[in-house]
Amino acid sequence: MSQSFLDRINNGVLLGDGAMGTQLYERGVYINRNYDGLNLTDDHLVKAVHRSYLDAGAQVIETNTFGSNSFRLAKYGMEDQAYAISKAGAEIARRCADEHSSTLVAGAMGPLGKPIAPMGKISEEAAYKAYSEQVRGLVDGGVDLFILETLLDLHEILIAIRAIRDQSDMPIVAMMTIDTSGLTAYGRTPQQIAAALNNEPVDVIGLNCSTGPQNILEGIKLMSELTDKPLAAFPNAGEPKMTEGRLIYLSTPEYFAEFTKRMISHGVRFVGGCCGTTPKHIRLMSSAIRALQPSGSIVVGSETKKKKSKSVLEQPEVELKPRGDRSPLGKLLDEGKFPVSCELHPPRSPSVGKILRQVRLLQAADVNVVNIPDGPRASARMSPMALAHIIVRETEMDTILHYTCRDRNILGIQSDLLGAQALNLKNILCVTGDPPKLGDYPMATAVFDVDAIGLLRIANQLNHGQDLAGNPIPRETTFFLGAGFNPGAMDPELELDRLDQKIDAGAEYILTQPVFDQEKLVHMLERAGNIKVPIFVGILPLASFRNTEFFHFEVPGMDVPDPIRERMKSASEKSKDHAIAEGIAIAQEALLLTCEHVQGAYIMPSFGKVEMAIETISVLDGRRTLSEIEADLDSEEK
Fold first, then answer.
1. One fold for both 2-304 and 330-637?
2. Residue 270, strand partner residues
3. How far apart are CA 21 and CA 64, in angstroms?
4. Residue 552 to residues 172, 371, 528, 548: CA-CA distances in angstroms?
5. Which of 183 and 242 is assigned the larger pLDDT?
6. 3-state helix, strand, coil in the chain (%, to 5)
7. Sequence-ordered list of residues with C-beta below 8 angstroms from that of 39, at least 6 positions apart, any chain
8. Is the pLDDT of residue 180 over 50?
9. Exposed, middle or buried by CB within 10 Å (0-12, 13-18, 19+), for 637?
10. 335 Cβ partners below 8 Å, 6+ apart?
């Protein structure tokens, strides 16, 4: 197998794969996880990424071991598992590669993450030991070659090369990375990289990562002047934009394919993608290579398998069912109605009697659906899923189940969603959730494998009849998926960007944070342009000045304007009843001023006082006041 790599490099162009980390994130693994550790805990996700690249045409797949050295793993308390993680990563890739003919496995090795002496505290001996342990795991796991990538320091890459050569004679691809200035982080030029690596026992040299194809191509041109070794290029999909911990890459697959041709024309014999690249990039790169060498050795993985495994990103072309088939709420929106929802917090005990009485009161007020938050303010309450099921069973009221990412890992999320479908809970609001330190249990730990966007992708995947790994499930789910939006966000551009991402990920309706400044909402909607999904305006009737100050100063994402705070202060000084009446009046004003811009209302009564919600919506056409409803209920009881 190893010689096969050298033969193919010398006689044609070999196609590698794309980003592993980007694809794991797209599959719902949030950025606070150790991606290399997934080899031991969630190998099905790693396999899904490998298979998606093989189906796209990759001839060499890299192991999910970029950071599986003891120094990087120490951040997660896993430094003693470097060998096991490296070996497992190689075994996973080996099994996937063996499903395709002529596919090679490259053991991926990245930098240690800390400078080596004399610039840093890591000794040369410690660095050598760490790389040696990683090499041993990759060799035992069955790799065909090694890829050193994204190295910044020539001294470090030479140590890694020595660690490999002391244990293996397999081919080595040695790649470093440069920034927009064309230099490494330590000021080395592509010419200096080529001159140094040209004298080392490596088989291919090159550049990877950086800011995109153009920067890598310029560096490759300079390297080609100083070496006769085959060249490798694995650029990023353009310069990333950081959005709340999420990297967005802008280079299109078509743009990448064009630069693939240019790189080949300048001597590149091993080409692939780094951060931000997807199976779509690799597929078009494969086509570009075939166009340049039609009789070449490119073998598209999907042609060698009887059954193609589908990438999570490449959703099957299955048309989602109309909203009306999935929930009463969807049907109301399809009919052009203006649904009203009221939020009910799960109780702090197993008792549901009070909640059910409130639901029946809301039904009498023609409220269409109740929202059930998931551990609001990170407090311990009854399971919202259990409560939603009880409400539907006992009252037939439609529910919107808030589902957070805080408390479940990605497997638990999938299990819960399948359970929600079995319980006929179809309206799901996907939210990230408050960290525990904001609530009653600051010592509690959070999971946050994904954020709301990743959660939407998982649920939408189930709606398309596939589980998280891309495997078909016997029956697709029929969730009506929603997401949150804060019109008063401190960073409007970020909030609008995330709104777009949520809709792209599968959100079919949007619930806003409480709106106290109507102009902010209208302005944000205008900036957002043509939003193609219904929006429910969040309305929160305030109960007192103290309540108002709490929301303004202590609840993230809330901003109560000074005039409203003054109104609540004046009313509270008179009496409790005056304060409640003023809070309802403010809420009614907000509702009337915004209802023409939205498709529904989401009422969040303070302290669970549903009576305040009923009074708030009484200003809408055809709605009754609380006193009228109570009179009718008294009459029915008599």
1. yes
2. 14, 232
3. 8
4. 58, 22, 25, 6
5. 183
6. 45, 15, 40
7. 46, 64, 65, 68, 85, 88, 89, 92
8. yes
9. exposed
10. none
Lookup result for tokens 């200003």? 619
> For residue 511, what is the enclosing H or E element?
strand 509-514
| CB-CB contact of 298 with 69 (8 Å) | no
- Distance, in Å, from the CA atom of 384 to the CA atom of 399, rounded to the nearest integer, reads 10
pLDDT computed for residue 50 by the predictor:
96
| Type of residue numbered 437 | K
For position 245, what pLDDT does the model report? 47
Place of tokens 């499903």: 99
Residue pLDDT, tens place only, 47-56: 999 999 999 9
Question: What is the rounded average pLDDT of the residues 223-229?
Answer: 93
Tell how far CA 63 is from the center of its chain: 22
* Closest residue by Cα to residue 543 from 507, 511, 575, 500: 575
Domain boundaries, the chain: 2-304, 330-637
> The CATH number of 330-637 is which of 3.40.640.10, 3.30.190.30, 3.20.20.220, 3.40.50.300?
3.20.20.220
* 303-325 confidence digits (pLDDT tens): 333 333 333 233 333 344 444 45
CA distance 352 to 608: 14
Q: CA nearest 136: which of 166, 156, 157?
A: 166
Residue type for 106, please? A
Judge contact between 148 and 206, C-beta under 8 A. no
Beta-ladder partners of 232: 206, 270
DSSP label at residue 322: P
Cα angle value 230/236/242 (rounded, 5°): 160
What residue has token string 């060698």?
Answer: 304
The band of 97, judged by pLDDT with boundaries at 50, 70 and 90, is very high
pLDDT single digits (tens) 110-136: 999 888 887 778 999 999 999 999 999
Domain 2-304 has CATH 3.20.20.330: yes
Among the ranges given (26-35, 41-50, 599-608), the one the predictor scored with the smallest mean pLDDT:
26-35
The Cα 211–Cα 240 span in angstroms is 8
Over residues 132-171, the pLDDT tens digits come to 999 999 999 999 999 999 999 999 999 999 999 999 999 9
Residue 359 CB neighbours (<10 A) = 24
- Average pLDDT of the residues in 214-242: 85
Residue by residue, DSSP assigns 378-431 as G---S-HHHHHHHHHHHH--EEEEEEESSS--HHHHHHHHHHHHHTT--EEEEE
Task: Return the closest-CA partner of residue 345 out of 318, 367, 378.
Answer: 378
3-state secondary structure of 481: strand
Confidence check: pLDDT of 621 > 90? no
- Reported residue count of the chain is 638
Measured distance CA(525)–CA(541) in Å, rounded? 22
Q: Which alpha helices (H) appear in 225-327, and where do they start and end?
A: 253-265, 279-292
Environment class of 616 (CB within 10 Å of its CB; exposed 0-12, middle 13-18, buried 19+): buried
